[in-house]
Design brief:
eleven-stranded mixed β-sheet, alpha/beta, 16 helices, 450 residues, TIM Barrel, binds pyridoxal-5'-phosphate, globular, 2 domains
Length: 450
């Protein structure tokens, strides 16, 4: 295949991670004062930090740091947590406190940051026919099963706003994953309604081709399975994965086998900002992936201080389209981690979405949003309307625990400050939302999962 005839752009260095040990050096490079650097170190005791040689050398504009959006996307900010908490940890660091003393402050702080918005720790996981539970598998919407491979529970770099941040801070109890491939396959095989498997994480593309193939290949002969999706940030954080890594070509051949088996292979690429598309390496990765017959669909949350303006989204979607990628979702940031720091009110979110959407051609209007992935389902804010003198949000379910709710408009009182579904109140005389009144008997299972 022509895909593999193309040589890597240049001999590339192997992946090299930057962790909290490198923070002092990197924040100095960003021009932070000693106090600011210490505050960043304090925040990094609570929230995870990981960068790598590619994002540091190719993506971040160091002349613009610390305001550069790529820098903000990767580096903890001094004011991401309440000032008194940051000061307390900074004092401990300054005094050379023990790991135990630090932990005593850090752990309760993490617990206050809603570490499990997806309900992964307390959900009743799906069970096999023999009643064995299947950790690492989530089946909320009839047609799609999520699988969290155990070897894919990290990323090539961490986004500061990550809603799965808790699994990266090294607390084994917070992890939710499985390496039980046979059970996954059995589960999908015995559930004919499942047409999609979505490998997620972390980032499944941190797995090498041999491990990835162990998860993917057994799925290929399940007749009713139509699509395999891979949720990944690797195109932005380590495009070498598809171009110059030792197993890059093998990975593309694996993708070709999925397509040859008659399945849709979709890379659900997480792109947060148009600057992530600025390197030749990422464009080459996109070209090579598309040449396998895989489709790249793009999604990201709307994040204050990083991508909260329409021009940024317009530029991002248009760049995706130009390179053959398909815009898929704009998400609302979830209620976890340094949430207040990043949250964009729904009223602003819908304005930003509309302004950007108005300026892309129909090819880009495949994108949906702003969408909240919440307990009852994926709720899209369609807009603001005046109905009979009452100002309301118009919303609909894109996905729902109960398929009956999907695609039906519903209304909430307009609230300029609201940032999440639970801030909203029913409007136009209704006293409850669909999921608060309707029985969930239409749901394909009774699991209290997010
Ligand atoms: C978003 C999501 C899916 C996939 O939904 P699509 O609308 O088909 O992209 C599946 N399961 C869960 C839990 C999700 O949040």
């Amino acid at each position: 295949m022509t895909t593999h005839a193309v040589k890597p752009l240049s001999p590339e260095p192997r992946y090299r991670a930057y962790t909290t040990r490198h923070l002092e050096e990197l924040t100095t490079r960003a021009g932070l004062s000693a106090d600011e650097r210490l505050a960043v170190q304090a925040v990094a005791q609570v929230l995870p930090f990981r960068a790598n040689s590619y994002v540091v050398d190719e993506l971040i504009d160091w002349a613009a740091a610390p305001d550069d959006p790529m820098y903000r996307l990767l580096f903890p900010q001094p004011d991401m947590l309440p000032a008194e908490d940051v000061a307390r940890i900074a004092d401990l660091l300054r005094a050379g406190a023990s790991a135990q003393a630090l932990n005593a402050v850090v752990q309760p702080l993490r617990a206050r940051l809603n570490p499990h918005p997806a309900g992964q720790m307390d959900l009743n996981v799906p069970r096999l026919a023999n009643a064995e539970p299947l950790p690492g598998l989530q089946h909320k919407y009839a047609e799609t099963v999520l699988f969290f491979p155990q070897q894919g529970q990290t990323c090539h770099a961490y986004c500061t706003y990550c809603f799965r941040w808790a699994q990266f801070v090294g607390d084994a109890d917070l992890k939710f994953a499985s390496r039980d491939i046979a059970s996954l396959v059995d589960y999908v095989r015995s559930h004919e309604e499942v047409t999609n498997v979505l490998l997620t994480g972390g980032d499944p593309m941190v797995m090498n081709e041999r491990v990835l193939a162990r998860y993917i290949e057994p799925l290929l002969d399940i007749e009713h399975l139509e699509a395999i999706r891979i949720g990944t940030k690797s195109l932005a954080w380590w495009p070498q994965r598809f171009v110059s890594d030792p197993d890059a070509d093998d990975t593309l051949r694996l993708f070709e086998r999925v397509v040859a088996a008659g399945k849709n292979l979709a890379l659900m690429a997480h792109f947060s900002h148009p600057n992530e598309l600025a390197s030749p390496m990422v464009l080459e990765a996109v070209r090579r992936i598309r040449a396998t017959g895989a489709v790249i669909r793009t999604q990201a949350p709307l994040i204050r201080g990083i991508n909260d303006d329409a021009a940024t989204w317009e530029r991002m979607w248009r760049t995706h389209l130009r390179h053959g990628m398909v815009p898929y979702y704009m998400f609302v940031e979830r209620d976890t981690g340094p949430r207040d720091y990043f949250a964009v009110p729904l009223a602003r979110a819908v304005d930003i979405f509309r302004s950007a959407y108005q300026r892309v051609s129909g090819l880009g209007r495949t994108v949906r949003g702003p969408s909240m992935s919440a307990t009852p389902g994926k709720v899209c804010v369609d807009g603001v309307a005046d109905i009979g003198g009452e100002k309301v949000f118009v919303l609909h379910f894109i996905q729902a625990r109960n398929p009956e709710w999907v695609g039906r408009p519903f209304f909430a009182k307009y609230d300029e400050q609201a940032t999440w579904l639970f801030d909203l109140r029913p409007a136009l005389g209704a006293d409850a939302f669909p999921w608060e009144t309707a029985s969930t008997s239409g749901a394909h299972n009774d699991l209290p999962v997010d």
